[in-house]
Design a protein that fits this description.
This protein has 502 residues and is of the alpha+beta class. It is 33% helix and 21% strand. The strands form seven sheets. The protein has a seven-stranded antiparallel β-sheet, with helices on one face. Strands 13-8-7-17-16-6-24 form a seven-stranded antiparallel β-sheet, covered by helices on one side.
Length: 502
C-alpha cells in the first residue's frame, strides 16, 4: 500500500465456507420450499390414466417442466446469496464493522524505506510476493544502482547488517578492504556482495530480484529530485550520453533516462549461480573497456558475525572494520559512561579528509527481522568514469582510501533473554556529522526507556513522505523498528525518504 495514501486500513474478513453456506441455504430453501404434488404413476395401459382430463404422458411432461422451473429458481436464489456473502472479498462498498487503522509508516507485516519511491515500491512488491526482508532489501539495493547513480551503483562498495529474529543471530555483510581495478578506479563489489547475502538468507529466486531493475534500466526511469540535484551541482562531465540531453546539458527533474547496457548486465547477472559468477561477467567487460589484461584483484565480500556491545538496555550490533562500526560503538560506549542525567552532549565522531556520498535503505518485518544496507561510490558519481559497454559508473574507492566512515549501521535488541524484545535499527548516510546524529538518536531512545517501555512508534508524530523528497540521500537517518507485532519505518528529517509496507 502506498504510504502517500490515506491511513492504512485493515479489515477483518468473515471467512466463507461453502459447506457452511450450503447448510444455511438448505435451511432457507426448506423454509420456502414449494412442494410438488405429483400423482402416483399408474399403468399406461389403464383406461383411467389421466390427470385433470389430460393423458398420462402430458401430465408427466407438465410435472417435469414445473420441476425444472422451480429448480432454476432455487439455484438462482442460492447463487445470489453466495454473491452477497462473498462481496466483501471483492471490494464491497461497505467495509465490515471490525477494522482498525495505523498512521503511515506502521504496518502489520513488513515495511521498507529508501531514498527512491520507485525502489521502495519494488521492495514492497517483493514482500507481497512472499519474499523476506533480505529479498526486499537486495532487490531495492539493485534498483537504487539503476536510479541513483550519483550515490550507488554496481561499481559501489556495500556493507550490510542483518538480524534474523528466528535464530537470534546478527550477521554483517562486509565488503572487505577497498581495492583498485585500475589507478583511480575502485574494484566493483556490489553484485558479489548482494548475491552472497541473498544466497544465505533470501527466499525468492535470485533472478526474481533483478527483473524489475533490469526493466527500469531498459525501458527508462524518471529522474527524481536527489539525482536531478546531484546533476545540477556536479555537472555532466564523464556522464554523457547516459545522463545528458543531446546538447550536453544534464537531465532535469522528471526527465526519462535509460541505461540498456546496464540492463544487459543485470539480465546476465540474474543467471549467475554463485557470487563469483555474478561479478566475473561484469569484470570481464570492464577490463575490456579499460584495455586491461585482467583484474589484479578479486572482490572479497564476506558474511561474518556482527560486532556486539552489551549495554544495560540490551545488545548493540554493527559491522566490523574497515567500516566505521567499531568507532561508532566506541562513541556510544563513551557517551553512555559519561552521560549525566539531562545532558545532551556526545563525543565528536572521528573526522576524515573525505566527505563521502552514500546511499542507505532499511527493511523490517513485524517479527523483528531487519536488514540495513549502505553503499557508496565515495564521491558523487564516483570516479565519473562510465564504462561504455556496461553502463556502470566506477567508484574512486581505492586501497589507500580512508576507512568507510559512511558505513555504520546499528541494531539494538532490547533484551538478550526476551525472544519477543523490541528491535530498533538505525542507518545513516552522509558525513560523520550524521553518525553523531545517529548516536544522539540512540542515546535519546535509551534515556526514554529508563522511565518507560519502548514508546510505540505508532503514536510518534510522523509526516507523510513527499512525492519528490528534496534532501533524501545525504544527511539522512533511517529508523526501523519492530514493536507489538508491527513494523515501523521513519526518517530524519521526518518524511524525507519514501516508504512502503503492507
Amino acid at each position: 500500500m502506498d504510504a502517500r495514501t490515506e491511513p492504512v486500513l485493515y479489515h477483518k474478513l468473515q471467512f466463507w465456507e461453502p459447506d457452511m453456506e450450503s447448510e444455511g441455504g438448505e435451511e432457507e430453501e426448506e423454509d420456502e420450499e414449494i412442494t410438488l404434488g405429483l400423482y402416483p404413476r399408474r399403468s399406461q395401459d389403464a383406461p383411467g390414466n389421466t390427470v385433470g382430463g389430460l393423458p398420462g404422458a402430458w401430465a408427466r411432461l407438465l410435472a417435469g417442466l414445473l420441476l425444472l422451473a422451480v429448480s432454476c429458481f432455487l439455484a438462482a436464489r442460492q447463487l445470489h446469496s453466495r454473491d452477497s456473502s462473498a462481496g466483501s472479498f471483492r471490494g464491497a462498498v461497505t467495509p465490515p464493522a471490525s477494522r482498525h487503522s495505523h498512521r503511515p509508516g506502521v504496518y502489520h507485516h513488513g515495511a521498507i524505506i529508501s531514498p527512491s519511491a520507485v525502489c521502495s515500491h519494488l521492495g514492497q512488491k517483493l514482500l507481497v510476493a512472499g519474499g523476506n526482508v533480505v529479498d526486499a532489501g537486495v532487490g531495492t539495493a539493485v534498483c537504487l544502482t539503476v536510479v541513483h547513480p550519483h550515490a550507488t551503483g554496481l561499481g559501489a562498495m556495500f556493507w550490510g547488517l542483518f538480524y534474523n529474529s528466528s535464530s537470534g543471530n546478527s550477521t554483517a555483510l562486509t565488503a572487505g578492504p577497498a581495492q583498485s581495478l585500475a589507478p583511480g578506479l575502485g574494484l566493483p563489489t556490489a553484485l558479489p556482495a548482494l548475491h552472497l547475502l541473498h544466497a544465505h538468507f533470501g527466499s525468492l529466486p535470485w533472478s526474481h530480484l533483478l527483473v524489475d531493475p533490469a526493466m527500469l534500466a531498459q525501458e527508462g526511469f524518471i529522474v527524481d529530485e536527489p539525482l536531478a540535484s546531484a546533476l545540477a551541482a556536479q555537472g555532466t562531465k564523464g556522464l554523457c550520453p547516459l545522463l545528458c540531453h543531446v546538447d550536453g546539458t544534464p537531465l532535469s527533474l522528471g526527465a526519462r533516462a535509460t541505461n540498456p547496457n546496464l540492463a544487459a548486465v543485470l539480465r546476465q547477472a540474474a543467471l549467475a549461480t554463485n557470487p563469483d559468477l555474478a561479478g566475473d561477467a561484469l569484470l570481464s567487460l570492464l577490463t575490456r573497456d579499460l584495455e586491461l589484461e585482467g583484474p589484479s584483484a578479486q572482490p572479497m565480500p564476506t558474511l561474518e558475525p556482527a560486532l556486539q556491545l552489551p549495554i544495560p538496555q540490551g545488545v548493540l550490533f554493527t559491522t566490523p572494520s574497515p567500516s566505521a562500526g567499531p568507532e561508532l560503538l566506541a562513541l556510544v560506549e563513551a557517551a553512555l559512561h559519561s552521560r549525566a542525567p539531562g545532558s545532551d552532549s556526545c563525543p565528536p565522531f572521528p573526522q576524515t579528509a573525505i566527505t563521502p556520498v552514500s546511499s542507505v535503505l532499511a527493511t523490517v518485518d513485524s517479527s523483528g527481522s531487519m536488514l540495513l544496507l549502505t553503499s557508496s561510490l565515495n564521491s558523487s558519481f564516483g570516479s565519473r568514469h562510465l564504462s561504455p559497454s556496461t553502463g556502470v559508473l566506477l567508484s574512486n574507492l581505492e586501497a589507500r582510501s580512508s576507512p568507510s566512515a559512511w558505513a555504520c549501521p546499528l541494531i539494538l535488541r532490547g533484551s538478550v533473554d526476551d525472544t519477543e524484545a523490541d528491535m530498533l535499527g538505525l542507518v545513516a548516510s552522509g558525513t560523520p556529522k550524521v553518525a553523531k546524529t545517529m548516536t544522539r538518536a540512540l542515546l535519546s531512545h535509551l534515556a526514554e526507556r529508563q522511565t518507560q517501555t519502548l514508546r510505540d512508534p505508532q503514536h510518534q508524530t510522523q509526516q507523510r513522505p513527499k512525492e519528490s523528497p528534496s534532501n533524501c540521500g545525504q544527511g539522512t537517518l533511517l529508523q526501523v523498528a519492530a514493536h507489538t507485532e508491527h513494523a515501523h519505518v521513519s526518517s530524519v528529517p521526518s518524511g524525507c525518504c519514501p516508504f512502503q509496507g503492507f
